[in-house]
Write a structure and sequence with these properties.
439 residues; mainly alpha; two-stranded antiparallel sheet; 18 helices; 2 strands; 69% helix
Length: 439
């Protein structure tokens, strides 16, 4: 049980800088690899140089930190005020690889700018369309987010995507050491220190990986001490077909942000997210993504793995999460700091994320139970999850659909669950009508 009286569990609790930093660092380490991986994949597909890729990774950390601060401390209508951590979205990777290969990286950035602005405007009108997304739909989406992350955690545990030595004993050993360390610390630690189990596991796993020769710090000798990102490093191109396909992905990103915001409010604050929080959260998702494109970077979104960290620790203090956002900005301004964080092996991250991602699934199930196990709710949840998760595990089922539909839905269970749940909510009669039909 957590000590709910400790200010670390309060959104605006007063805590010292010394107490805030470890919790912030824990959030940074949980998302760092996932934040830079999309950059590496897309720049590889469009054949950018190592120097260009390094500059974009630097910009990615700064933009992620700035976006997180906007979420934590709203500026006008922008920002949710919730402990949301932002990062480069994986959702766009496959579409950007196709666009980049066809038109070049400038078309990727142009589509990101327009799509981000449109998503931001949609977010500003959340109060007009949110009524179509009742709690049962949000609960189904949160559950889907948890299930969608389990495979990512398992892949990291085994050595990471594309690793030719995936599943070798050294990766499994490091992942197991990390996971066991997290569990032991969580059992033995007292008071709020218990919630630093992920950070402890990451440190122990990192040390183990270092002695097993899995940590590469060779880039430290090649980076400068301080560096600033450059605005508009590439000329943007605006291709209508690229903009349309990317805008569809932005709608999916908005869905995930809606689910993450709902999950954070439910798990961290034990209430539903307000219209104001939904509006500000999706607004930042879009407008900061547009700003990101101006620095040559990819769109950013709320990070579900950090939602899992909140679900596991119940730490929602904005000052603690903000310290992590500041560390991300420092990682971008001081490249050496970023190199050290980037050297964290996938297996170490996988050992920590298994429990975190499982916590999202459990939280989604708890949200489902809070909606009530009526016939209507059970039908919406069961069918949306079975279609969303089942079909995306067999993407060949989308073979007959146009490429743009496949790129959005074929491997994105969150998007499919959201669409199916929305449709079923509109189609199924309400409980009162169902009872009249049965009489």
């Amino acid at each position: 049980m957590v000590d709910e009286k400790d200010p670390i569990y309060e959104l605006d609790g007063r805590i010292s800088f010394k107490k805030a930093v470890p919790f912030g660092l824990q959030h940074v380490l949980a998302m760092f690899v996932a934040n830079i991986a999309p950059i590496l994949i897309v720049t590889g597909a469009v054949h950018l140089s190592m120097e260009e890729t390094g500059a974009l990774v630097q910009a990615a950390m700064i933009i992620a930190g700035v976006g997180s601060l906007f979420q934590l401390f709203p500026l006008g209508p922008l920002g949710s005020g919730l402990p949301i951590v932002m990062g480069i979205s994986f959702t766009f990777v496959s579409t950007f690889c196709v666009i980049g290969a066809k038109y070049g990286y400038g078309a990727v950035l142009g589509a990101s700018l327009v799509g981000g602005l449109l998503e931001g405007l949609i977010g500003m009108g959340a109060k007009y369309w949110r009524r179509f997304i009742p709690p049962i739909v949000s609960a189904s989406v949160v559950t889907a987010i948890g299930f969608s992350l389990l495979g990512i955690g398992a892949n990291s545990f085994g050595g990471g995507y594309g690793n030719p030595h995936f599943g070798e004993p050294k990766y499994l050993a490091v992942g197991t050491i990390t996971l066991v360390s997290c569990l032991i610390f969580n059992i033995k630690a007292r008071h709020f220190y218990k919630q630093l189990s992920v950070l402890f596991g990451l440190v122990v796993g990192y040390i183990a990986a270092f002695f097993m020769g899995m940590v590469d710090l060779g880039k430290l000798a090649t980076v400068g001490f301080f560096s600033l990102p450059h605005p508009m490093p590439y000329a943007m191109e605006f291709r209508p077909d690229a903009i349309f396909s990317v805008f569809l992905i932005f709608l999916v990103s908005a869905t995930e942000t809606l689910g993450d915001t709902s999950a954070l409010a439910a798990m961290g604050l034990e209430r539903e997210a307000t219209d104001r929080e939904i509006r500000g959260s999706i607004g930042v998702d879009g407008f900061i993504s547009a700003l990101s494109s101006c620095f040559g970077c990819l769109p950013i979104t709320s990070f579900s793995q950090n939602v899992g960290l909140v679900a596991m620790t119940h730490v929602v203090n904005r000052k603690a999460i903000a310290s992590g956002a500041c560390l991300m900005i420092l990682a971008g301004l001081f490249p050496a700091f970023g190199v050290i964080l980037a050297s964290l092996p996938d297996a170490v991250l996988g050992g920590c994320t298994l429990m975190m991602f499982g916590s999202i699934v459990v939280s989604g199930v708890r949200m489902l139970s809070g909606c009530g196990f009526t016939q209507r709710n059970m039908s919406i949840a069961a069918l949306s999850l079975s279609i969303g998760i089942g079909f995306t595990q067999t993407p060949a089922i989308f073979k007959m659909f146009p490429t743009i539909i496949k790129s959005v839905f074929a491997e994105n269970c969150v998007a499919v669950v959201f669409v199916v749940a929305i449709l079923l909510n509109l189609i199924f009669p309400n409980e009162l009508e169902m009872r009249k039909m049965q009489e």
